[in-house]
Structure formats: C-alpha cells, structure tokens
C-alpha cells in the first residue's frame, strides 16, 4: 500500500465513488492520474479492501462504483496511527528563484507574474470547494470537517503565496526594504 492507496480508502469511507470521481476528489490534496488510480483500485479490490458494483447508464458507458470494506477500514485505521512523514516540496518555481541572480529583471517578473496568476486561480478553486460544504457540516465529528479544514489550509497557503509574490514585486520595484517580513516564532 502506498500513500495514494490510503487516500483513496479514506475518500471511500465517505461515500461510494467511481475511479474518475476519486481522481477529482483527491486532486486538491494529492496529484494523481487515472494511470495511477485504476491499478490501485484493482489491487485493493483483489486484496478485499474494496468492493465494487457496476452501474448501468443509458447515455454513457457503465461505470464501476467502489466502496470500502470492513477490512479496508481496518487497514486505514492501522495507517492512521503510524507517524506522518515530513512533507515533500518539489516546485520548479523555487529552483528558478534560486537562479534570479543571473536572470534579467524581465524574466524574474514574468515567472513571478505567472505564479501570482497560479495562486489567484488556486484561491478561486479553494473558495469554490469551500462554498460547496454546507455550513451545518463545519463541526468536529462531521464527515465534511476534514475536507473543510484541508480546503482552508489550501486557501491559506495560496493566499500566503500570493502575498509573498506581492512582497517580492515590491522589492523589485524598490518599494520595500530588504528585511524579514515574517514574524519570529516567539511573536506567533
């Protein structure tokens, strides 16, 4: 079992879903493609962690719906008590920023503007996800609570990233002094 497998199991504890629906639901939290998801679903079904059924559709091809089994829930609960690994950062943007000392100002501004646009799109995306969660479900113990706090985390990350881009733009424009803009841990 890999991390993606556990994520799929977790989503299936909430509701029965097709492979395509699972791909859409996991995207805000984990980048995964069809080519990764479908083999995992098949393996988990063979391992009896999932059960499936076919749903006939008149206007589209039939679809396979997956549900987690009791054995799958037990496997997920075992995983939940294991230590969480450190987050991994792989961002080409960061590597390019390391090279700004040799870049022309125009190329720096271009990649900075591209990232601003990306953060603004992410903010819209997470705000849309957040708007779909019923207000009555925003409490500890509700099945939507985990989604809500993760969507809020994504939104806050995008907002902070956008704020950072604006700060760097101000530095480039000479409108901000070179100083550490973040509070120290003792100030938090």
From TrEMBL:
Question: What's the domain of life for this entry?
Answer: Bacteria
Concerning InterPro entries, the annotation shows: Tscrpt_reg_PadR_C, Tscrpt_reg_PadR_N, WH-like_DNA-bd_sf, WH_DNA-bd_sf
Transcription regulator PadR C-terminal domain ranges (all copies): 89-173
Task: Give every Transcription regulator PadR N-terminal domain span.
Answer: 8-76
Residue ranges of the TM segments? none
Do you know which Pfam families this protein is assigned to?
PadR, Vir_act_alpha_C
Instruction: State the name under which the record lists this protein.
Output: PadR family transcriptional regulator
**What lineage, starting at the top, does this entry show?**
Bacteria, Bacillati, Bacillota, Bacilli, Bacillales
């Amino acid at each position: 079992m890999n991390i993606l497998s556990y994520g799929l199991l977790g989503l299936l504890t909430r509701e029965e879903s097709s492979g395509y629906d699972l791909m859409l639901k996991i995207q805000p939290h984990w980048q995964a493609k069809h080519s990764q998801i479908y083999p995992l679903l098949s393996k988990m079904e063979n391992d009896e962690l999932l059960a499936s059924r076919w749903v006939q559709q008149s206007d589209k091809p039939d679809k396979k719906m997956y549900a987690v089994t009791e054995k799958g829930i037990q496997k997920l609960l075992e995983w939940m008590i294991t230590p969480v690994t450190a987050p991994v950062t792989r961002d080409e943007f960061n590597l390019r920023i390391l090279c700004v000392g040799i870049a022309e100002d125009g190329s720096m501004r271009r990649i900075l503007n591209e990232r601003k646009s990306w953060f603004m799109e992410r903010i819209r995306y997470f705000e849309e996800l957040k708007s779909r969660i019923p207000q009555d479900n925003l409490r500890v113990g509700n099945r939507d609570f985990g989604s809500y706090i993760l969507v809020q985390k994504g939104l806050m990350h995008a907002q902070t990233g956008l704020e950072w881009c604006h700060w760097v733009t101000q530095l480039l424009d000479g409108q901000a002094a070179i100083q550490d803009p973040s509070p120290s841990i003792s100030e938090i």
